[in-house]
Amino acid sequence: MDNLILALGWAGLYGPMALGAIGSMIGCSIAGQAAAGALLETETGHGRYIGISAMPSSQSIYGIVVMFALNRELTLGNAPGLAAIGLLCGLALMFSAIYQGRSCASAINVSKIRPEIFGMSLAPAAIVEGFAVFAFIFALVLSAGIPA
């Protein structure tokens, strides 16, 4: 049983980065596919489409920072807390990146038809980013309470 608890602790240490990266890969792919399609259908604005497709990559950065904040000697006493914070934060970052990619793809698709609403069409993606920031900040705050 002790080995299982320690294994979950290790998963919690690496989880925010790994799950955040998985979400970023999926989110950037979704938005990137929309950007590639927009490149074929429009004559201008190509740079902003490519730039927007990179928005979901920020969740990987948040995951790396949380991983470093959680990094400490693993014991039976702190492994459950590390597992809970790390895995739950990682899941939040993963889903945030995926849905931000979908929001960015929608923004790209609508703005190729009406370029004047490009800025407004990014609002949903920015809101999703805000939730990733909440998960990131709360994980950092809670990680300070886990014994070293």
Describe the structure.
With 148 residues, this protein is an all-alpha fold. The protein has 6 helices and no strands. The protein has helices spanning 2-41, 46-53, 58-70, 79-113, 118-121, 123-143. Helix 1 (2-41) runs antiparallel to helix 2, helix 3 (58-70) runs antiparallel to helix 4 (79-113) and helix 4 runs antiparallel to helix 6. The longest helix has 40 residues, at 2-41. The radius of gyration is 18 Å and the shape is elongated.
Instruction: Spell the H/E element sequence.
Output: HHHHHH
List segments where confidence is low: pLDDT < 50 over at least 5 consecutive residues: none
Counting helices, strands and paired strands, the structural category is mainly alpha
H/I helix tally: 6
Q: Into which percent range does the helicity of residues fall?
A: over 70%
Give the biggest beta sheet: none
β-strand percent reads under 5%
N- and C-termini, Cα separation: 21 Å
Tally of extended strands? 0
Taking Cα atoms only, what radius of gyration do you get, to the nearest Å? 18 Å
Please state the average pLDDT score: 95
Q: So what's the overall shape?
A: elongated
